[in-house]
Every structure is written in C-alpha cells, then in structure tokens.
TrEMBL record, chains A, B:
GO terms for molecular function: NAD binding; oxidoreductase activity, acting on the CH-OH group of donors, NAD or NADP as acceptor. The keyword NAD applies. This is D-2-hydroxyacid dehydrogenase. Belongs to the D-isomer specific 2-hydroxyacid dehydrogenase family.
Length: 326, 326
C-alpha cells in the first residue's frame, strides 16, 4: 500500500478559488480548500500543512482546535500579522512567508509615486480633465532624501531602486546600524521623531507588529517636514488614519500615497478619498500580473523542501513577526 | 575712455521679463530686452550677442535685416528649431543651446511615466475620484523594452535612468551603431518601422529637423505593438497628431504621455484631452524649480568664454540641427 499523501489545506479569502499553479501539487499532496473559519475547521483534521493566501483572515483563531496534525503554516503574503495569533506564536509550528515575491514590484511602485509627486502627475491629470494648459515648475528627483521605515527585504529593494536614480536613502530598523550597500545609514526606530524632519519622503515598508502598530501618529506627522510626503505600502494599522487625515487636511505634510489601510476595503465614505495630494490604491502595490502563480510556485518549492526534510525557506521569527535578514 | 560693453539682446516670449540671473551680466554687457519681432528689430542694431529664451519664437525672420553686428546666437532651450531660420542656417553665425540643463529632469519625467503606465496610476486616481476600491493586477517594470528615438544628451540620460531600474533600452539615431554604456543597441532611423514592434515603450527625445518632422505618422503607430505606449518629450511636429489621436482612439497603441504638441498651448477643444490612457502636460518635462536661473547661468558662462575668446560650449551643428555627441 502506497504511503498516504500529506494533506495540504489552502485557506483563501471567502469566495476565492484555489490560486493558479496549485494544481502542480497533484500526486504530491492531498489538497483541501477552505474559505473561512467554519470550512477551515472542517478541513483541518489530518492536515499537515496549512497555506494561507488571505492576509486579512481571522479564521485561524476560530478553527484552531481542529488542528490535530499541523506541522507548518505558510503565508503567501509578506505580512504574517493575521497568522501570528497568540496560539500560533506560542506553538512550535514553523511559519514561513512570501518574502521576495513582492519586493521588486513594490519598489517600482514606490519609486513611481516619488517621481509622480515630484513631477505633479496628479496636477497634470486634474488640469487635463479640465482641458486646461498650465505650465508649472516641478521638482527634481535627484538628491531628494528618503527614509524607509523597515529595513527588511522590501525596504532594501526600495532603497536599491531609489538610489539607482539618484535619491539619497536611509533606513530605519529596530536598532541603529552602520550604512551598507543599500542604505546610507540605518537609524533606530526609537529615534523616529528626531530623524523624520530630515526627509522629503517617508516610506513605510515595515511589518505590522506590536512595535510598529500606530507608529505613525499625530506626533510623527508633526515631526515630518511640511513639504514631505508619506508613502505606506506596509500595513494600514502602522498608521493612525485619523491623525494622517488631519495632517493632510491641515497641510502639515505635503501629500501621501497609500496602498494599505486600517480598514480594507477603504469605506466609500472615508475622508481619505477626497484629500488633496493623496494617492490611494487598493492594496495592490506588489501584485503584478502572474503574482498569484508566483506565490504558488514559491509555496510548492518550500513544500518539496519540507517533504525532503530540507530546511524551509523564509522562516518567520515569530517573536519579531518577520523573516530576519540573513 | 573705457571700451564699450558688448551689447547682448535677450529675446523672451511676449509679456515675459528678463529671466532671473541675467542681472549677473551687469558691468560685463549692455543688456537689451525684446519680446517680439518689432522690439527685436529695434534692439538688434549694434547687438553682438542674441540670447533667445522663447523656443517658439518666429521673431527672428521678421527682425533679421536689422542685425548689423551679430556674432553669436544662444538658445536657452534644447531644441533650436525656431532659431534655425534659412538665413541663420546659411550664415556663419555660431548657434549654441542649453544642452545639459534639461537632461536629468526630463529623464526623471519619462521614467515616472513609464512606471505610472505599468502601475496604472491614472486608473488609481480615476477610481479614487469615484471612491471606488478595485484591486487590479498591474505590470512589472523590470525587463520591459524601451526604444529612445534620439540618441543625444537627453536620450542618453533617459537610457541611463531606465537601465538603472532594470528596463532594457535601445536607442535610435541617424545611423546604426553598436551598443554602448547607455544603449543596448542603436538602430538607424531608416529602420524605424521594422524596429518599432519590439518595444513596450517608445520615447521621442529627438530634435525637430527635416529628418524627424512627421516621423510618427499612421504607419509608425501601426507598426508599434498594440500594448505599447508612446512618450513624446521632444517636439510636437515630430508627431502627426491626427494619426496619434486615431491610433489611441482605435486602441492600436495602449497609451501616450505627451509633453509637447504641434500646437502649443494645446487648444481647449482638442480631442487629445479626453483620450483614454493619455497623459498630457504643458511642455514642462524639463522645467524643475530654478530652471530659468540655471539657463541664465549656462548662458553667462558661455558669454564669458566668448569674451575671453575661448571656444563656445554646446555649438549646434546647423546642418543637423543639434549639438553632435562629443
């Protein structure tokens, strides 16, 4: 009798199909699909590997006591905040993530917004909509100063692209470190308010952890230069949205590009939609054509390592809430 | 009796003041100011140096027979098409231009538009105006192919910035040349239609000359890939605007970013304003804060060379219509 295939459960968002590319596991795993807490409870018994594609899920807590055979949880997202429930954190279960897949697309997105701010692309489009020809002097990109909060894989890729076009880029991590090939300097997060005034662009590329939740509040926005712009491609709750709205409304900062929000989807009556110099997008900065398939391939590669007994890639430090730099 | 100061006439657009920074010539030149053909006629007698800041002027032809002492014409623009009247072209007068000042800002502008197209920033803004949350998969920038038509100083700076972020960039010049540190390959303009299908972005950075006027017509747009975007930061008349409008309307190309137009200002009832995936700006791609002062400084540097008898910088080849690469 052949050995039974290991059971892999994939937890997607409600209403979503299994992601493309997962069919490559046929013959290597018994694939189950759940879309919420109840269906996850139903498929967890016997499941050895859980792959979570819904980065906003709250199904884990609800279904957890049905997990009788679980050996590993993989998240097809960079952020693992929704996975790291207190129970998962306290367990011995390894958690891995999608480190790497989103880095470059997100860095392109951030650089694009920096240039769009400097060149006032939004102003161009608004004038265009009114059929209005109006020459303005715009800003040079070269030499502007960028602070990337979060010196992980995504933050480093942002730094590399920005430096390649002549921006000056520093990073901010848990502790101060000397500059390296990516960052001119790496400041400690404890110095956030002292450091903020020196930058034209402040980019949040940090994971959502107890150390970053609410980091950008009224005091942080007050510390930024009035001509500076704020870009968040990390996680919404790193920002106190009401404080950001007030800072933008009162012109205490000069603009924002936001891809992530405390509440997603952003409610249609939210004040952010109509603020001046504010660019919104629907949590998609890293999602280039083919991204779901890339995530499946990355998971399957890790799954084969797990079957062979090789070390898993992208192992999350569950205390810190992210994959530490190697 | 001290030697009389050389007379310098500055021709600006109608209604414009002398550009900032020109006052540095006090004590070195007798400065005169003209704003149209009639006032230019009045100031030309005795004028040894003419500095033209209006790149759209047609005053030269009208005033020309009043030029009795002219030794040199400088244009504070990259394009010198308005200066190179048949008479100027046939004369021995040296013509210099603003080569260098606009290169980097224009390259930043072009790269910004490439990223904005890939990431659909316009779609984001239109959704935002409707308070609509809609996730889309967007395009990767890395690895996309760019053809820069015009392998001069501006084209090369565009290539450098684009290559720095992972785009593949070829150039197009009068004749084919091997690739170099800026371009993967340089194609001959005679091969335009054969080469166009291979590129995701086609950027016009060429001067307006008899060889480039109307280069982008219906046949050129038909040769482009349907998913390709067209970017013009060169000169409007390099493009047959009606053909471009038709190509955009019928989806034969995927979009355009236009900073220059056959008629400027673009008339408010022009069909371009409302076309899908078309980004318009008011001939300002290179005009970063302080640009007028930079242009004055560049002219004054050349003026001091001229007084000392040193070779002028940025000497235009009047046959070709631009400053040849050194």
């Amino acid at each position: 009798m052949p050995e039974a295939l290991p059971v892999v459960a994939v937890l997607t968002a409600p209403g979503e199909d299994l992601p493309p590319g997962m069919d490559a596991l046929e013959g290597e795993a018994e694939l189950r699909h759940a879309t919420d807490g109840a269906s996850l409870r139903a498929v967890l018994p016997g499941t050895r590997v859980l792959c979570v594609t819904d980065f906003r899920t709250d199904a884990l807590g609800e279904a957890w006591d049905a997990a009788d055979s679980l050996e590993w949880i993989h998240a097809t997202s960079a952020g693992v905040d929704a996975i790291l429930t207190p129970t998962v954190r306290a367990s011995n279960l390894p958690v891995t993530n999608a480190r790497g897949v989103f880095d470059r697309p997100i860095a392109e997105f951030v650089l694009g917004h920096i240039i769009a701010f400097c060149k006032d692309f939004r102003g161009n489009l608004e004038l265009q909509q009114r059929h209005e020809w109006r020459h303005r002097d715009t800003e040079r990109v070269e030499g502007r100063r960028v602070l990337v909060v979060g010196a992980g894989a995504i933050g480093r890729q942002i730094a590399r692209l920005c430096r390649a076009v002549g921006l000056e880029v520093d990073g901010m991590g848990r502790s101060a470190r000397p500059g390296d090939e990516d960052f001119g300097a790496i400041h400690a997060q404890s110095e956030l308010h002292q450091r903020l005034p020196g930058y034209d662009f402040v980019v949040v590329a940090a994971p959502l952890t107890p150390a970053t939740e609410g980091l950008f509040d009224a005091a942080a926005f007050a510390a930024m230069a009035p001509e500076a712009r704020f870009i968040n491609i990390g996680r919404g709750p790193i920002v106190r949205t009401d404080d950001l709205v007030a800072a933008l409304r009162e012109g205490r900062i000069a603009g924002a590009a936001l891809d992530v929000f405390e509440e997603e989807p952003l409610p249609s009556d939210h004040p952010l939609w109509d603020l001046p110099n504010t660019h919104l997008s629907a949590h998609m900065a890293g999602d280039v054509i083919g991204w779901r398939r890339s995530l499946s391939e990355q998971f399957i590669d890790n799954f084969r390592r797990w079957r062979r007994g090789d070390p898993l890639r992208n192992l999350v430090d569950k205390e810190q809430g992210f994959v530490p730099s190697s």
